[in-house]
Amino acid sequence: MVKPNLPHPLPGAVGLSHLSAYDWEAADGVCGGSPHLHLVCTEAYVVTGGRGAVQTLSPDGYRDIPLEPGSVAWFTPGTVHRMVQGGDLRITVLMQNSGLPEAGDAVFTFPPEVLADPERYAQVAALRPGTGPDTAAAARRRRDLAVEGYLVLREALVAGDNGPYLEFQRAAARLVRAKVPNWRELWGAGALATAERTGAQLDALEAGEPAYLADATAHEAGPTRLGGFGMCGRRDEYNLPGVTLPYQSE
């Protein structure tokens, strides 16, 4: 495997995308995205327009966090989250460890029988390329299946039974285990390399030899795919090294 080379990451080697929450109604009458968790990445929502909420499942229990312009909400690895549409909800998403979510660090809350079969999971999680009606229909079916499993987890957690939630976490970890070596390469070339670069810069400053400042420059970018179908909603992506690459599951 060729070691990834991510020479110009965003600050902190974060990932970036923009989302408009789905307005499709689910089985429980709520409009919104596909519940899922991340295994090693913290995710943040910065609300830029509209209203809505993010529903979360964690050892803290079930929470419904309101979202409005100016709100910031973030959730650590293992937290199941579901974006809920309340009206024109628009969000900028910041992802820790850029490249890892796109490489599979996200698992949908599908029912246990789907999670137990890696081939079936991959089949129902994948979407064909494009932004047309067939892809939209597949994304909605995927969302509905994730909500089906999520509602069972939420009901149990609200009733004081965290067993199904903990088993979902374990099933998610089993699904991604084989991907970890690739994630380690991406992390080493991205977030870890960024932190190590800061250490080297501090050493240079302490030594009074800030030669690295001669490399100062600026970068710019714009979205390269508009209106793609993400986990939570329609997604504008940045196809840049170390930023946001198309999801493998899509």
UniProtKB/TrEMBL annotation:
The organism's place on the tree of life at top rank: Bacteria
InterPro entries, A to Z: RmlC-like_jellyroll, RmlC_Cupin_sf
Name used for this protein in its record: Cupin
